[in-house]
Design a protein that fits this description.
The structure holds 2 protein chains of 2 kinds. By secondary structure, chain A is mainly alpha-helical. Chain A is built from 13 helices and no strands. In chain A, helix 3 packs across helix 12, helix 6 (107-115) packs across helix 8 (134-157) and helix 11 (217-226) packs antiparallel against helix 12. Helices cover 41% and strands 23% of the residues of chain B. In chain B, helix 4 crosses helix 5 (144-157), helix 7 (202-208) crosses helix 9 and helix 9 (243-270) runs antiparallel to helix 10. The longest helix of chain B has 28 residues, at 243-270. The chains are: A mainly alpha, B alpha/beta. Chains A and B meet through helix 9 and helix 10 of A and strand 6 and helix 3 of B. Bound molecules: adenosine-5'-diphosphate and magnesium ion.
Chain lengths: 271, 293
């Protein structure tokens, strides 16, 4: 009762809020792993069906060199594919966003390209380009460019028209309006596209590796699966997830740095 | 190219008509408007929402071409954009990635003014507009009234001689609106730049204008022109209390309400292009009738 009356300073409130935000997912995670560990160790399921988290962790540590080699391959595929997809998405989205006639003619094809079943495409790409990095990069590009294209178009279309009118009456040229109004107004949209793309990229690389690869976390996973080394399957899975989450977090960080005015941050801003 | 050495003398709309092309169908917005505005006039335009007021501005600014008639500036047919015009809107249209100072200098940037010069003028303007100390604030940190002051300052700083203000105070609460109206009256008095001011508030039109252009519902034409004789400089409270004010207001409301009731309904049910608009117009005319009391 008494504690309720004591005015809390800003920092305590900040900590409490931080706990509330980070604490609940963390708690869920801890409970999840605890139940999993118990289910596995109690002999409810054999190890090759459900290895205990501790066994998975152990395997990750013991074979860290092998994991790292394979992770490097997957990371390389993403790090080549992501920038290409980004540039492609910005250029295609930029053109479609700026040119109304392209929105009617070209946009449907862009959408159709995304309806290609990625999984079905993978073996074909391997057949054409071999077991190397190329088919993986192509698939990463394919999944990255689409959300970025859509986001760029949405951004450009949503530009505040009245600011453009204000500029136009003052004789502002196309380039001036583009740089001073259209680009900054679209950036928050582009970043939502980037975040989606970031979480797809790792998945695309792994699926491409499933179709045929000498190394990579997807290849590792497939081999381990064939040999009933289920803890290695889980180990690879955890690393793939970590890469996806890591990329997403990187984009969120960039978003905070580059578009700090974005509505999302404004609401719980400090002023 | 955008700066003109000649000074602004007149804007004339001669039999100006306009239609939008909406999916192959022609939507008439302006049936025919004749209007002349001279240097240093303060003209207000009232009309139900959706009647074509903003379209009229776009025509005067040279952003749209009339489908009939002519827009003339200083007696010459307007080609390209009108070199005397600066705009202001109901939504302040401030850029959220720029602070107040950055927003205020935007027009000068577009006009290619040197940075230092623009900044100096902006700082002076910020003081004059009661915005000193807010240079580094963002638009969303300001009250509605302050946002509109930033937008008005931005428009003033262009040094353009013909200001097109499109319902600039339309979204403000009554008290803030009154303050802004007085502020604009005082500011106008200083250099008496030509102002055309769109509103759907009859009080506002009479309080600010030398002349009120009353527009009919879409497709619009000039229903009436009301001369407003209140002496300048004007004090808002005095004008609003004057018996002549009430007289003019009653007269104008009759025109607006009767007209929107008789002409609007059949159009609203027959035309799919603007659902809800006519009803909205009618409602807003009535609201405005009540809001001034
Ligand atoms: N780009 C456009 N295409 C077709 N119709 C439009 C377009 N812009 C506005 N209109 C229509 O023209 C009419 C007049 O619009 P506007 O000038 O904005 O009205 P006001 O400013 O008086 O509220 C409205 O009915 C609106 O729906
Ligand atoms: Mg309008």
């Amino acid at each position: 009762m008494v504690a309720e009356q004591v005015p809390r300073d800003g920092r305590t409130r900040g900590v409490r809020r931080g706990l509330a935000v980070a604490g609940i997912p963390l708690l869920v995670l801890v409970v999840f792993f605890a139940v999993w560990e118990f289910a596995s160790k109690s002999g409810w399921q054999p190890d090759y069906i459900l290895p205990a988290p501790s066994d998975v962790a152990n395997d990750l540590w013991k074979d860290r060199g092998g994991y790292w080699d394979n992770a490097q391959t997957t990371l390389t595929e993403i790090l080549i594919g992501f920038p290409i997809g980004l540039v492609l998405g910005l250029v295609i989205g930029g053109l479609i966003g700026m040119v109304a006639s392209l929105r009617r003619t070209a946009y449907p094809f862009v959408v159709a390209s995304q309806s290609l079943p990625t999984l079905a495409l993978a073996p074909l790409l391997v057949l054409w380009f071999g077991f190397g990095v190329v088919p993986k990069v192509i698939l990463v590009v394919q999944v990255v460019f689409f959300p970025i294209t859509v986001a760029t178009v949405a951004g450009l279309v949503s530009v505040p028209q009245q600011a453009l009118v204000f500029g136009r009456t003052l004789g502002a040229g196309w380039w001036q309006l583009f740089v001073k109004i259209r680009v900054p107004a679209s950036l928050p949209h582009v970043f939502s596209g980037l975040k989606i793309a970031a979480s797809y990229a790792a998945v695309a690389a792994v699926i491409a590796e499933f179709a045929g690869a000498e190394s990579g976390l997807g290849a590792l996973m497939l081999r381990a699966n064939d040999n009933l080394q289920t803890e290695a399957v889980f180990g690879a899975l955890i690393l793939i997830t970590a890469i996806g989450v890591g990329f997403f977090a990187l984009m969120s960080l960039l978003e905070r740095l580059i578009v700090p005015w974005h509505e999302q941050y404004r609401k719980d801003g400090d002023r | 190219m955008s700066r003109s050495s000649d000074r602004f003398e007149t804007l004339a709309l001669k039999g100006v008509g306009h239609q939008f092309r909406a999916g192959g169908e022609l939507v008439p917005t302006i049936a025919g408007v004749d209007l002349e505005v001279g240097r240093s006039e303060f003209v207000t335009v009232v009309g139900p929402s959706g009647c074509g007021k903003s379209t009229l501005f776009n025509l005067a600014a040279g952003l749209l071409r009339p489908t009939a008639g002519q827009v003339k500036v200083n007696g010459e047919p307007l080609e390209g954009t009108n070199p005397y015009v600066a705009y202001m809107f109901q939504q302040a249209a401030l850029l959220e990635w720029r602070d107040v100072l950055g927003n205020v200098v935007l027009g000068q940037e577009f006009l290619g003014m040197p940075k230092g010069e623009a900044r100096a003028a902006a700082m002076e303007g910020l003081a004059e507009f009661g915005l000193s100390g807010f240079e580094r604030r963002r638009a969303w940190e300001l009250s509605g009234g302050m946002r509109q002051r930033v937008a008005l300052l931005r428009t003033y700083l262009t040094q353009r001689e013909l200001l097109l203000l499109d319902e600039p105070f339309g979204a403000l609460d009554a008290l803030t609106r009154l303050q802004m109206q007085q502020f604009l009256l005082d500011r106008w008095q200083r250099d008496q730049r030509t102002v055309i001011f769109i509103t759907h508030d009859v009080d506002e039109a009479l309080l600010l204008g030398d002349r009120v252009i009353v527009l009919a519902p879409r497709p619009t034409y000039v229903l009436a022109t009301v001369e407003v004789g209140f002496e300048r400089p004007r004090n808002a409270e005095e004008v609003l209390r004057a018996p002549e004010f009430t007289e003019l207001k009653t007269q104008m409301l009759e025109m607006l309400v009767v007209d929107s009731e008789s002409e609007v309904e059949p159009d609203g049910s027959a035309n799919g292009s603007g659902p809800g608009r006519p009803a909205e117009a009618e409602r807003s005319a009535r609201q405005d009738a009540g809001s001034g009391e």
